[in-house]
Amino acid sequence: HWLDESVGNQNHAYADCVEKYGRSETGPKNEYFAFIDVDEFLVIRSPKYSDVKGVLDRYLVPYGGALTVNWMMVGSSNNSVSSPLPITKRNQYRAKETHNVIKSFAKTSDYIEHINPHGVEVRSPATIHTTKYPGALFKPASATHASDHERPSDILLLYHYRYGSKKEYVFKRCVRGDAIGGSMWCNGNDIRSDDETPEHIQIAPGEVFDDTVWKFLTSRVPKYRAFDEFEDFHHSEGFPTRPSLLRKAVYGQD
Question: How far apart are CA 52 and CA 34, in angstroms?
Answer without folding.
Answer: 10
